[in-house]
UniProtKB/TrEMBL annotation:
PANTHER family: SULFATE TRANSPORT SYSTEM PERMEASE PROTEIN, SULFATE TRANSPORT SYSTEM PERMEASE PROTEIN CYST. It is found in: Membrane. The chain crosses the membrane at residues 20-42, 67-91, 103-125, 137-161, 193-214, 249-271. Part of the ABC transporter complex (TC 3.A.1.6.1) involved in sulfate/thiosulfate import. Part of the ABC transporter complex CysAWTP (TC 3.A.1.6.1) involved in sulfate/thiosulfate import. Probably responsible for the translocation of the substrate across the membrane. It is a multi-pass membrane protein. Residues 65-268 form the ABC transmembrane type-1 domain. This is Sulfate transport system permease protein CysT. The keyword Nucleotide-binding does not apply. Belongs to the binding-protein-dependent transport system permease family. CysTW subfamily. CDD domains: TM_PBP2. The complex is composed of two ATP-binding proteins (CysA), two transmembrane proteins (CysT and CysW) and a solute-binding protein (CysP). It comes from the Bacteria.
Length: 282
């Protein structure tokens, strides 16, 4: 009887304190994430459906959504390509100043976003160092969606590089050498052997850069010019609503951004899960 009872008992975890740590985790996430986000829903519930729709479907608001989401998407897509190239160079090659280049990747993390916005505006303005060279060619960067995209590329690049770099460092080079010895060309080796391993971290870096770009304010507000219907981003419109003491309108706009961002990130996580399963199956 004693042995039967002991056999049915659940095995204890090797690591102690699971219940306490789990409780702290739930409490921490509730206080810092779940409750503040729930407050957006509660505050928006004070609007009637007609008022909510009038607020979020306004032409100016829709234009700001379009600018925020499309520029963030294009910036994350560009960082997906160039972030992979930068990570590849830092991992696979040795060159003078490599450590300096590697440390510069994290500069957008440490640099205040307002400083980045002012610097980019000063350089790409029509009278700036680079802007004055592009102006005769008919290319205008500052105070256009192109300038917003450039700012988001600047702040989003480290997310892709730092998620891809560790995976590249852990890849077994013997597998690549075996593929080459079996007659695979370099491009085919990269496409069939290396790229499948990099798809999950690339999707993660893309999601992080995209999410950061949607909510970015400091580095964008200077270079965008803040022209309604043209270069006005959604976070700036939320700030404008708050300055006008229209808290319900601000939370309504934020709610739409929250739901849209969550659905997009959910889709990216699903694609990442499918990619991981495919890699494991192979």
């Amino acid at each position: 009887m004693k042995s039967s009872t002991s056999s049915k008992a659940k095995p204890r975890s090797i690591l102690p304190g699971f219940g306490l740590s789990l409780g702290f985790t739930i409490f921490y996430l509730s206080v810092l994430v779940i409750i503040p986000l729930a407050g957006i829903f509660v505050k928006t519930s004070g609007l009637t459906p007609a008022q909510f729709w009038h607020t979020v479907a306004n032409a100016r608001v829709l234009a700001s959504y379009k600018i925020s989401f499309f520029t963030s998407f294009y910036a994350a897509l560009i960082n997906l390509v160039f972030g992979l190239i930068v990570a590849w160079v830092l991992v696979r090659y040795k060159f003078p100043g490599k450590k300096l280049v590697d440390s510069l990747i994290d500069l957008p993390f440490a640099l205040p976003t307002a400083v980045a916005g002012i610097a980019l505006t000063a350089i790409y303005a029509p009278n700036g160092w680079i802007g004055s060279l592009l102006e005769p060619l008919g290319i205008k960067v500052a105070f256009t969606p192109l300038g917003i995209t450039l700012a988001l590329i600047f702040i989003g690049l480290p997310f892709v590089v730092r998620t891809v770099q560790p995976v590249l460092q852990e890849l077994d080079k013997e597998v690549e050498e075996a593929a080459v010895m079996l007659g695979a060309f370099r491009w085919r080796t990269f496409r069939r052997v290396i790229l499948p391993e990099l798809i999950p971290p690339l999707l993660t870096g893309f999601a992080l850069a995209f999410a950061r770009g949607i909510g970015e304010y400091g580095s964008v507000v200077f270079i965008s010019g803040n022209m309604p219907m043209k270069t006005e981003i959604a976070p700036l419109l939320i700030m404008t609503k708050l300055e006008q003491y229209d808290y319900k309108g601000a939370t309504a706009i934020a709610l739409v951004m929250l739901v849209a961002s969550f659905l997009l990130l959910l889709l990216i996580n699903y694609l990442q899960w499918r990619s991981n399963r495919r890699v494991i199956a192979e």
